[in-house]
Amino acid sequence: MEKAPRSLVLGATPFFCLLLLSLLYTVEIRSRQVPSNQWKKTHSGVSRIEDQHHMHSLMKRLLKGGNQTQLEETGLACHYDYHTEVCVSNRPVRIDTLTMKVYVPYDQGMPEADSIIIPYAKREDKWITGTAVSSVQILRENISTAPACEYTHNVPAVVFSSGGSTGNIFHEFTELIVPLFLTSRHFQSRLHFMVTDFRLQFMSKYKKIFSHLSSYEVINPAANVSVHCFPGAVVGLHYHDHLAIKTTEIPEGYSMLDFKQFLRDSYNLRIRESSQTQTEKPTLILVSRKKSRAFLNEDEMVTMMKALGFRVVIGQPDMMANMDKFAEIVNSCSILVGAHGAGLTNAVFLPEGAVLVQVVGLGIDWISNTYFGVPAPGMGLNYIDYKIEPEESSLISLYGKDHPVIVDPESITSQGYEVGRAVYLLKQNFNIDVVRFRETLVKALGLLGRSAPLG
Question: What is the pTM of this model?
Fold first, then answer.
C-alpha cells in the first residue's frame, strides 16, 4: 500500500490536535454533571417518575401537617422533636462542602431565622453530638448571591453525619442505618448521600446498604471541596426508637419487617422464615463476649446446648467483624443467644419466627428490655429473657452477697447512667446455671414447634 505524503500527515496534525482538545473539554464538562437517570419508582410496579411534581411529593412525605403546607408554599420546612431535626427543601439548593452551608432560595414565608442543624439521630445525646458531629447551616439567600455551581446533580441530596457512636453495631443500626432507611427508602435509590464527619470504616462496613439505598456515589465533603447543586435536599435523619419504625409516621408505611426484607435484599440472604431452617438439628448461635458480660462457663453451656439437639455456632468477635459473612450465618439460625450487648443487634438478620434469647444481668433490666426486648416482636421474632440469679454474677465475688450492688441494684443505677454502667456493664460476667438455663432453651424449642429430647 502506498504511504500518504509526509506533508499531508503534517498538515493534518493541527486539525487532530484541535479535535482532541475539543473532546477532552466536552468530557471535562460532562464529568462535572451527574447523569440524569430518570426518576423511577419500582415499588409495586408503578411507572417512572418523570417530573418535578413527583419529587416534591416524595419530599413532602417526610413532613407532617403544617410543615407540609409550609414546604409547598415556601420550598423549605423543618421538623423538630426530642431526638431529631430534619429540614427539607423541594427547591434547587447549593451546598458548599467547605463550610457545609446549604443555600436555599429565599421566600418571604420561610422561617425568619437561618437554621443550624445537627444531622444525626438522637441529637439529645450531647456527649455524642457535642464532639463527634458537625453542624450544617441552612441559609436563606437570593440564589444569585450564592456561590456558583461547580457540580450539578439531577437527584436530591440527603445530608447526614456518620460521626456519633459509629464503631458499635447497636448504635450504628439504631442511630444511622434504620434512620437512613426510613428517611430515604421511598426515593427508590434516586438520591445522593452527602456524609459529613466521613468515617471510611463505617462506610465500607455498610457499603451494601448504601448501594441499595442510592444509585449514586456517596459524597464525602472533606474530600470534595466544592459547590454542589441539587434540585432539592434533606438535611438530617428521622428517628423513631431503638431498632424500631413507627409505621404510621413513615412514607409508604414501611415497618421493621420491611427493613428486614431490605437487609435480605442487600446481603442476598435466602431465608425469610425460620421454618426454612428446620433441619434435623436446629442451629443456635451463641454470641461470645471476651471483656465484660462474658460467659465464664461457655464450654459447659455449649455442651448442654448440643445435648438438647442444637447445632451450635459460636459467634466470636472476629467473626462478627465481617458483616457480609456474619449476616449470612445468622440468617441460617433459628435461635440467637447472648448476654445484653451490641452483638444482639445481629438479630436483625434472623429469619422471621426465630427466637432471640437475652441473658439479663443484675442491674440492667431496663436497658435490656428497652434495647432488645421491646423491639424484637416488631422484627417478627420471638423473645425470651433469662434473668440471672445473684449467684450467677461475678459481682458477688467482688462485693459480697449482702452489698447493695447485689441486693439493691436500683440504689446504684439511680445514681446515674455512668455509675450503673461502671458496675453492671463493665465489671459483670456470668457463670450460668446450665440446669436452669436449659429450661429457657426448652421453651425456645417449643416456640419453634420442636420438643426437647427426653432426659
Answer: 0.86
